[in-house]
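Moderator note: this is an archived Q&A kept for reference. The question asked for a predicted structure of one protein chain; the sequence and the answer are reproduced below.
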Amino acid sequence: MLGEYRIVGRRASEIAASVERAVGAGELEPGQILPPMRELATQLGVNPNTVASAYRTLRERGVIETAGRKGSRVRPRPASTARGSLRVDAPPGVRDLGDGNPDPALLPPLHDALAAAARRHAQEPGLYGQVPVDPEFGRLARAGMDADGVPDGPIAVTSGSLDAIERVLAAQLKPGDTVAVEDPGWGALLDLVPALGLKPVPMALDDDGPLPAEVERVLTAGARAIVVTDRAQNPTGAVVSEARARELRAVLARFPRTLLIEDDHGHAIVDQPLYPLAGVTDSWAFVRSAAKGYGPDLRVAVLTGDSTTIDRVMGRQQLGAGWVSRLLQRAVAHLWASGAVDPRTVARSYGERRDGLVQALARRGIAAHGRSGMHVWVPVSDETGAVARLLQAGWAVAPGARFRLSAPPAVRITVSELSMDDIGPLADAVAAAAGPAPARSYG
């Protein structure tokens, strides 16, 4: 059942740690069946309740799953084996198009913003007991969301989009609850949900965002929460259109107790308008990150939502991290106020490369997707083979497995490092590596 690996430990925490270590090291593989609780308890010389407690901990951490009489097994994509490990390292001489980073040339210099924050700090030092949201940051953040039609709500600040989503899920859900996620979708989110002890439910989408019938299906089946990317969806570049937003709001209105989380991480790098869904359900959260437009290392995102959700998030934050550095908040506020980033210019730069690649692939008979953002999603018939052939041709891309639950095979190409001269050679290599298009390519 377990091959050469032996689970060890006397306490529940030790037994759970033993299994988790084995999963992380690859000694216990996805789908591998664990011993029945009584059998393992006999082997270890412990009470069956101790093993039951260990298995419960592993389920809550997203390491294993239990299917009634079929027993417990390692999850197909356990939280201990993060999707980030499903990457292709680019050896010397190979172009890395899989890391997902923005183009450094499109990020603003930070010295003026940090200097301005430091000068203000000299006048008004940041100390314990002060408000967690810098007033100027909060004012500018709220004004930006007002301009985009995001409903009014209190402001919180988190260390990036994923931090915000984790805090909202933890504030509103309990282990075992189901969360509807886009498929294909953001790999980090697909890891986070089971790591919180929640169950991810795949939700198909097309270039206009989640399909209304899919949203109705997952909510009817009992999903307690849904996470939607408004623009620059990772990995497909989907954008929630005005017509799709109307359809989705109509569906969500029939499930008012659903927790709706909207991720607008593409803010400042897209030129498509925002059509928010927030406000239809009783519980909602809207997060906007500064990472893609201003710099990933800033680790600043603004979060708003209904008062109960935001109060819970801020209350829990105060018991841990306390607040996101007001120095960083002031630096981001300076970048916003100074117009350090022109979203139209940034969007145009990414769009020229992204659209150029999609069109070049279309001329070679390859259907690809990328309406916005910095990625192109290319369906392939043999994902592993396509990645390997592209690597041999000098291009490292991200395997689609990092972003999929049940969606068909594909690869993700990040255009940030491309020049227009790269488009033709890359398209030739992708066309040679992709193979025949799969019958169901997307959505």
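Archived answer notes: The chain has 15 helices and 16 strands.
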